[in-house]
Amino acid sequence: MIWRNFFRELFHTTSRLVSVIIITALAVCMNVGLSGISDNGHRILDGYFAEQNVASYWITGTGFDSRDIRELQTIVAIEKMQPRVAMDVESRYDEDITLELFAVTDYAINTPLIMEGRYPDDPREMMLSDVFAEKNGLKIGDTYEMKLLSGAILKKTICALIKSPEGLNHYNAANLTPDLGAYGFAYMDENALSDVLGKHLYNQICVKTAPGIDDAAFKRAVNAALGNKALNILALEDNSEVYSLLEQIDSIEMIIRLFPLIFFLIAALIMFSTMSRLVENARMSIGTFKALGYSDRVILRYYLSSSVIVVLLGFVLGMLPATDILTKLILDAFMHSMDMPPYELLPDTMALILSFGLTCLFCIGTALIVTARALNEKPSECMRPKPPRKEKKVFLERFALIWRIMTFSQKYIVRNMMRNKTRMMICIVGITGCMTLSLCAFALNDSINYEVSLLGSNLFRYDIMIGFEPTLGRAQYEHLAKLPGVTGVQFDMTTSAKVYTTDRMETAAVTVEEDVLRLKLLERTSEWPLVMPKDGVILEKELADELGLAKGDTALLKFPDKIDYYRVRIADVRAPVSGVIMSQSYWRTLGRSYMPTSAYVTTSSVPDLTKKLEDLDFVHAHKLKKETTDAVEEEIASLSLIVFVLILFGGVLALVVLYNLGIMSFYEQIRSLATLMVLGFYDRETRKLLLSENIVFAALGILFGLPLGVELANVILVSLATFHFNLWVQPLSYAASAAITLGFALLVNILLGAMMRKIDMLGALKSVE
Amino acid sequence: METAVRITDLVKQYTMGETTITAVDHISFELPVGKYAIILGASGAGKSTVLNILGGMDTPTSGSVVVRGNEISKFSKGKLTKYRRDSVGFVFQFYNLMPNLSVLENVELASEICPDPLDAREVLATVGLSERLKNFPSQLSGGEQQRVAIARALAKNPDILLCDEPTGALDYKTGKAILALLSDICRERKKTVIVVTHNSALAPTADVLLRMKSGQIERFETNENPLSVHDVEW
């Protein structure tokens, strides 16, 4: 019979339990779903990398021969080596299509994943990127014709369609948006290209090292073994074509951890307050059960059962959409531009266990404590209603003047708010949480949009970017400025160098800029025009940190084409720039010759100039500004998606918090409500007395949420270090997030108002608790 | 003499699932203004239902209820609220005071919303609570709380005062004092007071007595010389 009572009681408390179930589900969904992004991302990619035995380092240089390979074999850390020839070729019939060829000794490292077909068993065969093949209408058995830099023609038959972890995010400077139809890759036997560099001569060695080796020590050892032949030693973590996805996922790690935490805290508050009040309200029943002779165990089980139901339902409801909807939605956005083999998402087991543990702790734990407390009382004490708390004068009453001019309803509202301080706290915390989340989301959105807009409006002021052929001559690039329609030109020159300090070395890109920059600045927030320092170089912050360099220090530069070392002064250290940057004048003081590698031009007519550029033989490639900014926006799109999800969750959270507290308050005050009705209060008057407090709470929550939201957004932006975003919030965003929060508060009031109208006056007054 | 209440052929049925319970079964009676009426009956006789309908808190299934010329049985929900607001004072067995409001504020709660209220302090003085104005209900005894409830009902200056077992939760002595207060109010202020009780010892104290049984009026008596509540014992 006790269980029949249980189900009837459960039925009566449904509306109160539902909100706890929803909030449990939300917290679980958020935690499992977001944490699943990182979990699944790492699992899928680590699995892929392990399966295809992706290299630990790519050593790029010139003329590696068998002696070099023997030298490398002396390095203990190296477990496996794969010398190969890596080179770019063009399609014979379309110079806009580039294919990167890898001629390998074996397929043991960076093993291509064969989607269809087989390994080559003939130097005339090659394995081709399946996306490239599909976009160019190629299939197994077709022969593809390519043009080498030397002009020689290469013909290979496609024997397999593949994906490769090396081609995960296949892009280069001229191909920022990875267009896998225009920029593909292919693998073949080393003999297939042996006549290009020479037999058993290679320009790249992929190595697999033991895990956890010291990066700097390894690079020193390789440099020692290969001398000047190694131009670049690229670790897997620095190889953006392979690793950028993991880097992107890691960059949102902060959001993934922080948001579910905030969510869980608020959810815990709600679970705690609701469960404790439900059991508290049932004190009399507990006393009655005891008086009837039911054992403590049975009663405890009785009252724990409802919290178990809440946990189970909330957990299952939250778990179901977490992986397949939330994780999938965001991870797919990340994977979108990547050439990944099909993958499968699995629920994040750790997050599941953690969520389950936390919900159990907060829900069942609370019920347990409160029930146990009631059980410890004597049945007679339990059955008597708790003596009403001594009503104290509220704080405001001390200010007699204010208190006197307040209307009666205002006094009533104030008293009611102060009646239960815990409730007031939770309410304000809940709304503050909502406001914080939504303002943070808006602020992130603003900052991202602002930065992207700066990209187009400040950083990039050119119309077309032009890449030059390496054969460029001075007359040619000077001719560019004289082309009709060209209104401005800015050149830069990129090369690479090793940067030495006394005990450290890093390979870095070196960019030589003009002395005054007008068309392409260095940072989104750079002033215009930007005057480059004449007395030294600008160093990327990350590079400076690794080398232990600061502003004012000096370092040595070593260029691959010269035996000499050049001493440079660090004039500035900036975060968002890349490598080493210096002005033309400073470059010339080093005694180096200048030949630009790219140009940024403004023009009166983009189409006309684009057409003209096609005919210039020294122009290697050209790209519109929009293509570059679009690529960045694409990369940021997945970030915006997360922001959207956060706004949504924040909103629902506020709704549930307010509704939950409102409905708890509603049931606790139902007698007062009924009394007001009997006294002849109109519905709107009753609503005003009972629901105004929600608006006050909302206002306070919004006020507290303002600084917190901005601060949270700032913390997240700092954590997204790779993007170097500054916080920027539009005034409208403050208003919008406040409006959303207030809107939810009003919606809850409408819901509660509708419930008030349905109160059975007589029933409510008859039941004495 | 002016009629305070005229009930004609009143029926109230509650449908619970498939069974229909008739709480009030075709009753008719009339009460003149300014009388102290007692509705007497055992539990479930339908007396509270009659009182609730009179108070505009419930609506009849059929029949007509006229209070001071207003046929409230035809009133809409909104009009009933207005009726409760302006014309009825209600006293409950369990006081139903607002726990967050002080004694004075509880009375003001009612007087604030009606067109012709009495002064809250004066009414509280009438019920003997001048010294407790700033106290909260939880600081008062049951009898004191019921006095506040009566003061709250009175302060609205209603046409009709309805009391549902007003002494049900009080001890003998306090109960008597409350009943004496109610009959005094009736005689001194010429208010129509209707008290519902199951205590038959109170029968001789009423001007008009309705004995109810199974939803019907068993007997309707008028008493020209009612006793004071102090003269009856139970």
Biggest interface between chains: A-B, 28 and 35 residues
Dominant shape of chain B: globular
Helix content of chain B: 25-40%
Low-confidence stretches of chain B: none
Give the name of the CATH architecture of chain B.
3-Layer(aba) Sandwich
Structural class of chain A: alpha+beta
Helix tally of chain B equals 6
Strand fraction of chain B: 25-35%
Unreliable stretches of chain A: 172-176
Name the descriptors.
heterodimer; A: 769 residues; alpha+beta; 4 domains; six-stranded mixed β-barrel; six-stranded mixed barrel; B: alpha/beta; Rossmann fold; six-stranded mixed β-sheet; 10 strands; 29% strand
List the helices and strands and how they pair.
The complex is a heterodimer of chains A (about 775) and B (about 230).
Chain A lengths: L1 H11 L1 H38 L5 E8 L1 H8 L4 E14 L6 E7 L8 E5 L7 E5 H6 L7 E5 L5 E11 L19 E7 L4 H4 L4 E8 L5 H12 L3 E6 L4 H12 L1 H29 L1 H10 L3 H40 L13 H28 L2 H5 L16 H6 L2 H12 L1 H39 L4 E5 L5 H9 L3 E15 L4 E9 L2 E2 L12 E2 L5 E4 H7 L6 E5 L6 E10 L5 E4 H6 L8 E6 L2 H10 L3 E6 H44 L1 H9 L4 H37 L11 H27 L3 H6 L3
Parallel strand pairs in A: 3-8, 5-7, 13-19, 16-18
Antiparallel strand pairs in A: 1-9, 1-10, 2-3, 2-6, 2-9, 4-7, 5-8, 6-7, 11-20, 11-21, 12-13, 12-17, 12-20, 14-15, 16-19, 17-18
Helix pairs in contact in A: 2-7, 2-8, 2-10, 2-11, 2-20, 8-11, 8-15, 8-20, 10-11, 10-20, 14-22, 15-20, 15-22, 15-23, 20-23, 22-23
Chain B lengths: L2 E14 L2 E14 L3 E5 L6 H8 L7 E6 L2 E2 L5 H11 E4 L11 H9 L8 H7 L15 H14 L4 E5 L7 H18 L2 E6 L10 E6 L2 E7 L12
Parallel strand pairs in B: 3-8, 3-9, 6-7, 7-8
Antiparallel strand pairs in B: 1-2, 1-4, 4-5, 9-10
Helix pairs in contact in B: 3-5, 4-5, 5-6
